[in-house]
Design a protein that fits this description.
Blueprint (H helix, E strand, L loop, with lengths): L8 E5 L4 H11 L3 E6 L14 E3 L5 E5 H4 L6 E4 L5 H11 L4 E4 L5 H4 L4 H4 L7 E6 L14 H7 L2 H4 L14 H24 L3 E6 H7 L2 H10 L16 E5 L4 E5 L3 H11 L13 H6 L1 H12 L4 H10 L3 E4 L3 H4 L3 H5 L3 E4 L9 E4 L23 H9 L3 H9 L4
Length: 405
């Protein structure tokens, strides 16, 4: 068995990151994913480089690291959706598909006669998931969506960065990734519904919607008070100390989640006298008096080096950790023990296996599987169209000559 979604068939018309990250999760869980790409160009992220995956000679291969990060467990088919014959081939492929995923700008696939309303009568069991910047409705529906734009409009940039600095985006494309995760959840819910009723449905994922949804406690802080939260840098808006702390030779993260833990911190730090000061005795007061408590605690942690703090705080069962570079992350013994780094053979890298970030999903009975490396552009076009549609060599040659494949 290749995973809990074995037998589920996905026709993937997505590109960049939000959609591909969603369909990679489905693929890791066993779904069959056929990725449709533009002939000669492919997914835009194929050109988001450098860096490229290295080959066995230590040189750049033809494949970008960005594309490889979100496209394993997929077969690549090139197909021109703007051509009516290309659209006809999509419809034929849908006869053997459970799910269609797409992240074109709102209305684009309708122009190609491939919108949900145009397909649902012929494919009543089809689960049709659209991921766009702003969703299918509302005044911004026709706007293109980009990760940094959504981070700005969705509020997270107003919360991120130093208090006296400029608004700051998150260092990875979190708006794309969260949209992909919500899309995956929606698809799995729709699969469950289809199992019960036989009915498909449309799933409308707007990146701005998903971004607003994960504002979480900061969003609720605003709704409860009507006050825009201030940028706090690395400080937590509701807990203190829960932040980056300076040490004698660098920085650590300290996570004190309650007053009992703060008492243990004071024991380790030798500053029990703070517990007699009402500004420090409870979390509510520590947060209210942030301007005093943070500088005072920073002076205390500066008295010892990072290694001393990490060793002694861990002994006292106080949340703490180093601030790792990515080289430290991918050599961390716990990360390696959890098998979060995998290697896969790739046709572009020769004998050199491509290193990739693993799925974090750990299922005891139906684990994820890594069956296919990220595909070369159009690598499986002939294979899929022969397997699924029974096309002949002559038919394939004609389609290629007419630039449909």
């Amino acid at each position: 068995m290749t995973g809990p979604l074995e037998g589920l068939k996905v026709l993937d018309l997505t590109r960049i990151l939000a959609g591909p990250s969603c369909t990679q999760i489905l693929g890791d869980l066993g779904a069959e994913v056929i990725k449709i790409e533009r002939p000669g160009v492919g997914d835009d992220t194929r050109s988001f480089a450098p860096p490229f995956l290295p080959n066995s000679a230590g040189k750049d291969s033809s494949e970008s690291a960005y594309f490889a990060g979100a496209n394993r467990n997929k077969r690549s088919v090139t197909l021109n959706l703007a051509d009516p014959d290309g659209q006809a081939l999509i419809r034929k492929l849908l006869a053997d598909s459970d799910i269609l995923t797409e992240n074109f700008k709102t209305g684009t696939l309708t122009k190609y006669n491939l919108g949900y309303e145009q397909l649902k009568e012929d494919f009543p069991g089809l689960i049709y998931c659209s991921i766009t910047g702003f969703g299918q409705t509302g005044p911004y529906a026709l706007r293109p969506g980009y990760d940094a734009l959504i981070q700005a409009m969705g509020g997270v940039m107003s919360l991120t960065g130093a208090p006296d600095g400029e608004p700051m985006k998150v260092g990875v494309s979190i708006a794309d990734l969260m949209a992909g995760m919500y899309a995956c959840v929606g698809i799995l819910a729709a699969v469950r519904h289809k199992q019960s009723t036989g009915e498909g449905q449309a799933i409308d994922i707007g990146m701005l919607d998903t971004h607003v949804a994960w504002l979480a406690n900061q969003g609720m802080n605003y709704l409860a008070t009507g006050q825009n939260p201030e940028r706090l840098g690395n400080n937590h808006p509701n807990i203190l100390p829960y932040q980056v702390m300076p040490t004698a030779d660098g920085y650590i993260v300290l996570s004190v989640g309650n007053d009992d833990t703060f008492e243990r911190f004071c024991d380790v730090a030798g500053c029990q006298e703070l517990l007699k000061d009402e500004r420090f005795s409870t979390n509510v007061e520590r947060v209210k008096n942030r301007d005093v408590t943070t500088p005072m605690l920073n002076e205390i942690t500066r008295q010892n080096p990072s290694a001393w703090w990490l060793e002694n705080l861990e002994k006292a069962k106080i949340g703490c950790g180093p601030i790792n570079s990515l080289s430290e992350v991918f050599s961390d013994p716990h990360v390696l023990a959890r098998k979060m780094l995998i290697e896969m053979k790739h046709p572009a890298t020769g004998d050199e296996k491509a290193k990739m970030i693993a799925s974090p999903l750990k299922l005891s009975e139906t684990p994820v599987s890594y069956r296919l490396p990220p595909p070369l552009l159009g690598e499986h076009t002939d294979e899929v169209l022969i397997e699924k549609l029974g096309l002949s060599d002559a038919e394939l040659a004609d389609l290629k000559k007419r630039k449909i494949l």
